[in-house]
Design goal:
Number of domains: 2
CATH class of the largest domain: Alpha Beta
Structural class: alpha+beta
Family: Belongs to the universal ribosomal protein uS8 family.
GO cellular component, one term: ribonucleoprotein complex
Organism: Candidatus Colwellbacteria bacterium RIFCSPLOWO2_02_FULL_45_11
Largest sheet: 5 strands, antiparallel
Number of helices: 3
Radius of gyration: 15 Å
CATH architecture of the largest domain: 2-Layer Sandwich
Keywords: Ribonucleoprotein, Ribosomal protein
Strand content: 25-35%
Shape: globular
Order of helices and strands: HEHEEEEEEHE
GO molecular function, one term: structural constituent of ribosome
Length: about 130
Amino acid sequence: MYWDSIIRVKNGLERGFERVKVPYSSFDMNILELLTKEGYIGTVSRKGRGVRRIIDIKLKYDSEGEPAIRGVKFVSRPSRRLYSGYRKTKTSRQGSGHYILSTPEGILTDKEARKKKVGGQVLFEIW
């Protein structure tokens, strides 16, 4: 599940790792590609075949060595899923962060969801 992948990335950044490997799933890959596009992680690549597939993630730091991801807060949980229409989707951290949503259009940030006028399940907030 995506929880594990995001936590592994966050822990890798806190420990100063250059790369992190997580088990492959297409849902996780879509989320990680979105985070790459938004500038939170370096690169993602799929490696291996069959059951042994993994996602290799190159982590990203700023010029001072600080992690690109400052924090993550999971909004939806298995026991309590939170859905939001595009009109009610808030901005994260006064525009300095993003809410990540699972929508019928795919995995989108809060800004993209408002632009496409589509709502969905709010997965987590990242800044």
